[in-house]
């Protein structure tokens, strides 16, 4: 019997705000333990929370970016449970009336376009962080109260690779929209994995196994690559699976049981009495819509369509948004945007990396690269000379046309002049001439290189090759 995996993901993302969700403490990574805290985020008696307005906007913006619906009435609830890193002994979250519902993420995976539906994206607060030492444990509450967005997918994912690609696409969308920096090393993105297996063709879901607190996308993929075969092997051996929570051991590369979960835990949800429901009006929604950006996949498709770029170039401009904007600023309306893209990706980016500079430091005017492309395509300079010209452009800020004119670098296309160079090279290299006439066609490339050397790179290489071939064949 063949089995298939059914996977849903719960992704927790810290929002890009300057302060925490309910107080004015800094939302800051790396501060000394328990320095960004106050009576509100420590849950001391008598305090009153005040909702972070930017966190509310970023949550609703996420709903729009994920093609979902922003609720016109949302409320906060208390989720009651005890754990050392929860100072209030409850978490303020959204239960039955979240800020956003529905939507989907479209992304590329294994050469096809996949779509994973989104159940909801709800706003809550993060908890503190436990540290375990040799003889004692400690809790850092700096993270407690940081605005946290939980994005819950439908069980539409069918493989570890698809889960990995979905998470990367989701991360890219959130970074594009300015919702979160999604820095994995700073713990800004964490993921819970829900997985079951079932015989192919069966509609009913199998027993749901949850893998908690994954902190890397590659870890999610490896955990699934282990867990799917583990569950299938149990079923094929005649065993049964029951609902449980497991953890991933990255060293052993295996999941292990944390606790059984026969029944859903009763968190005794009830509406947060200290927070009013959130009901955005039309004006608030219109302001929010102005913050919606072009999504990465749509951007890639547009670069390929509008500028006839291959997928690899378009992907480069999707991953490096400032570089893509720069390309668009100089490529609109030109006849060969692909050639301009080559110079931006292969030359400009390399020069900036070498010199540790940014686009803001580029000294030559925006039209300098298209002008350089035109000089090459019209045969006025060779590709080799163009490389030298670009280097000087980057250093001095001068345009390619000025550099070519000042240094008299224009390519020689005068047949009689090139013939003279060819005659000199043929006379000076009798062995290579004999090799070519004996059938070693690669000798022509050597002779052509000698012509370019003799002309100091100014000879039209295409014309030089034709003249050499005619002379050697006659």
Write the topology of this structure.
Layout (H helix, E strand, L loop, with lengths): L2 E12 L38 H13 L3 E2 L6 E4 L9 E4 L6 E2 L2 E6 L2 E14 L3 E4 L4 E4 L6 E7 L6 H17 L12 E11 L9 E6 L2 H20 L7 E6 L4 E7 L9 E2 L10 H8 L6 H12 L3 H9 L1 H11 L5 H19 L12 H10 L5 H14 L3 H7 L8 H14 L1 H8 L5 H12 L6 H13 L1
Parallel strand pairs: 12-13
Antiparallel strand pairs: 1-10, 1-11, 2-5, 3-4, 3-15, 5-7, 6-7, 7-10, 8-9, 11-12, 13-14
* SSE string: EHEEEEEEEEEHEEHEEEHHHHHHHHHHHH
Number of domains: 3
Mean pLDDT comes to 93
Radius of gyration: 31 Å
What proportion strand? 15-25%
Low-confidence stretches: none
Structural class: alpha+beta
The outline comes out as: elongated
Work out the helix count. Answer: 15
Amino-to-carboxy terminus distance? 73 Å
Task: Please give the largest β-sheet.
Answer: 10 strands, mixed
Give the fraction of residues assigned to helices.
25-40%
**Secondary structure tally: strands:** 15
């Amino acid at each position: 019997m063949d089995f298939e995996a059914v996977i849903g993901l719960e992704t927790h993302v810290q929002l890009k705000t300057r302060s925490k969700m309910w107080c004015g403490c800094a939302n800051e990574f790396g501060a000394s333990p328990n320095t960004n805290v106050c009576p509100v985020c420590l849950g001391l008696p008598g305090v009153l929370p005040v909702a972070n307005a930017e966190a509310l906007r970023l949550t609703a913006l996420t709903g729009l970016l994920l093609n979902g619906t922003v609720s016109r009435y949302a409320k906060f609830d208390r989720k009651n449970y005890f754990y050392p890193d929860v100072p209030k002994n409850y978490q303020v979250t959204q239960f039955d009336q979240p800020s956003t519902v529905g939507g989907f993420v479209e992304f590329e995976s294994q050469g096809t376009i996949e779509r994973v539906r989104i159940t909801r994206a709800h706003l809550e607060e993060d908890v503190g962080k436990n540290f375990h030492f040799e003889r004692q444990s400690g809790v850092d509450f700096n993270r407690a109260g940081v605005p946290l967005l939980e994005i819950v997918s439908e069980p539409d994912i069918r493989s570890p690779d698809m889960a990995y690609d979905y998470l990367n696409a989701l991360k890219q969308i959130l970074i594009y929209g300015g919702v979160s920096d999604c820095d994995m090393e700073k713990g800004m993105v964490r993921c819970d994995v829900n997985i079951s297996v079932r015989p192919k063709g069966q509609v009913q879901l199998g027993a749901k196994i949850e893998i908690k607190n994954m902190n890397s996308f590659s870890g999610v993929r490896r955990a699934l690559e282990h867990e799917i075969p583990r569950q299938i092997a149990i079923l094929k051996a005649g065993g049964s699976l029951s609902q449980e929570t497991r953890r991933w051991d990255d060293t052993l590369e295996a999941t292990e049981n944390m606790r059984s979960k026969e029944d859903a835990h009763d968190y005794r949800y009830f509406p947060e009495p200290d927070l009013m429901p959130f009901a955005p009006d039309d004006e608030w929604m219109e302001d929010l819509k102005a913050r919606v950006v072009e999504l990465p996949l749509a951007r890639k498709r547009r670069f390929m369509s509008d500028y006839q770029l291959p997928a690899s170039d378009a992907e480069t401009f999707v991953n490096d948004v400032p570089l893509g904007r720069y390309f668009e600023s100089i490529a609109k309306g030109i006849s060969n945007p692909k050639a301009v893209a080559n110079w931006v990706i292969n030359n400009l980016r390399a020069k900036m990396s070498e010199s540790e500079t940014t686009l803001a430091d580029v000294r030559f005017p925006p039209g300098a690269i298209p002008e350089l492309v035109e000089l090459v395509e019209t045969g006025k300079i060779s590709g080799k000379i163009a490389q030298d010209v670009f280097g000087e452009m980057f250093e001095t800020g001068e345009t390619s046309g000025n550099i070519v004119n000042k240094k008299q670098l224009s390519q020689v296309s005068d047949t009689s002049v090139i013939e003279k160079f060819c005659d000199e090279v043929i006379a000076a290299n009798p062995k290579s001439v004999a090799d070519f006439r004996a059938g070693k066609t690669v000798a022509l490339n050597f002779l052509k290189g000698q012509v370019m050397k003799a002309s100091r790179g100014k000879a039209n290489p295409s014309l030089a090759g034709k003249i050499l071939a005619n002379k050697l064949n006659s």
